[in-house]
Structure formats: structure tokens, C-alpha cells
Amino acid sequence: MTTQNEKRRPGWLPACIYLGGITLFLLSLQIQAETGQAGQIPSYQIWIQDPYTNESALATVSVPDYSLWNATRITDYEDSLLTNMAPPLAILTIDKLNLQVPIWNGTDDLVLNRGAGRIKGTAKMDEAGNLGLSGHRDGFFRGFKDIQIGDEIEVQTTRGVQSYEVSSIDILPKSDISPLTPTDEKIITVVTCYPFYFVGHAPKRYIVKATAKEPLIE
Question: What is the pLDDT of residues 178-198, one digit of tens each?
Fold first, then answer.
């Protein structure tokens, strides 16, 4: 579970503190490697920011668990940490999968090496509609192979935490974009490649849909 600082900061401050957060995060990785203490999950703090209002909030995010990751994906992720980026929009958490990942806007290579991406053209954070999220199958999103209908997904934004319940899981052709069709209902659609273990470009897409369970908790 993430925590949220209710105090707001001006737009320029998150970028400065964000760089400090990355430094602390890299230090956490070093400590994790050196100590290897079982049962302790290192974490780091990160600013999330609404790009439309510039409202910001501080969240705590767990250091990634590399146990399921492809070796190349680990390298790409660590390289991405060296690039300065705007603060992410939100944090996605699935306790069952031991997954916590920042969400940036867009799905370019840098974004998907760094975390998850909001698919442009889909609903905005905190708004009703179909919010599309994408991530690599051999990195953060590999744990989705174990998700089940009824599991809970949380998305923390600057406004609070929204809980979702997984309502469907589908495997579709790569060309099928129908899961991203706009809706009036507040849902998220998670898209990743399939099969999860596949050499080369995966031919299909793994689609997880989840419906908002309750009002956003501010």
C-alpha cells in the first residue's frame, strides 16, 4: 500500500525532489544487494504529478522485484534511471502480485523501460472512462500471468487511491484494439504482450480489465 502526503508543492519542486528520490532509490538497490535480508522490501519516495493542474503528492514505492524479469529488461530499466523525466502520473499497486510501479504518460521506449505507461487517447487519470495502461511482459508486468478475476488493483494519483476489481482476462490478436474502446464506466484496461515467455516479438496481447469498486479515497 502506498502512502500519500496531503501537502501540495509548487510545480517546480517535484522535479528537484524527484531527482533526489532516484538517488535514494539507487542506494536502496545497493543496500538490497548487499544485505539480502529476507522479508524486507526496500522502498523509495517519489513525487507524482497531475500534468493538467500541476498538483503533486509524495508516494512511497517498493523497489522492483527482479526475480521474474528478463536480464535485458533489468539492464534497460537500470539504464532508464539515468535519464531525467517528468514525475509520473500515478502509482499502480497489486499486493497479490508484489507489484508496485509508477505510471507515466505515453508508451515510448523510455517510459516502458522505466515503468508502466498510460496509453494516449484513453481516459485520463481519475476520470470516468476506459483508462489504458501498458507495460512490458518481461519486466514489471510479467507477474500478470498470475492475476485472477476478482483480484484488486489500486491506482494512486494526486487526488487519492482508486480501487479496481479484475473483471475479465483475455488473450487477443496483436491487431485487435477493441479492448481500448471508450466507455462511460470507470475501468482500467491493462495491455501487455503474450506469451509471457517468448523469444522475439510476441504475437498476441494479454488484456486485463478491472472495474472501479468504490469512490476514490482521498
Answer: 999 999 999 999 999 999 999
Residue with cell 522492483: 64
Q: What are residue 193's phi and psi, to 5 degrees?
A: -80, 160
Q: Answer yes or no: is 6 within a domain.
A: no
Task: Give the domain CATH number at 195.
Answer: 2.40.260.10
- Helix (H), strand (E) at residue 110: helix 109-114
* Residue 5 domain flag: no
- Residues 54-83 have pLDDT tens digits of 999 999 999 999 999 999 999 999 999 999
Q: What does residue 111 show for φ and ψ, rounded to 5 degrees? A: -60, -50
- Counting other chains too, the contacts that 82-86 makes at CB distance below 8 Å and 24 or more residues apart are 83/110, 83/114, 84/19, 85/110, 85/114, 86/15, 86/49, 86/51
Q: Is residue 85 part of a domain?
A: yes
**Residue 62 to residue 45: CA distance in whole angstroms:** 9
Q: Residue 1 falls within a domain, yes or no?
A: no
Q: Is 136 a catalytic residue?
A: yes
The single residue of 68, 193, 208, 212 carrying the catalytic annotation is 193
User: How many domains, the chain?
Assistant: 1
**Of the residues 73, 114, 136, 137, which is catalytic?**
136
193 as an active site residue: the answer is yes
Q: Are 2 and 61 a contacting pair, CB within 8 Å?
A: yes
Q: Determine the Cα–Cα distance for residues 66 and 153; give it in Å rounded to an integer.
A: 20
Structural domain boundaries, residue 171 = 12-212
80: three-class secondary structure by DSSP: helix
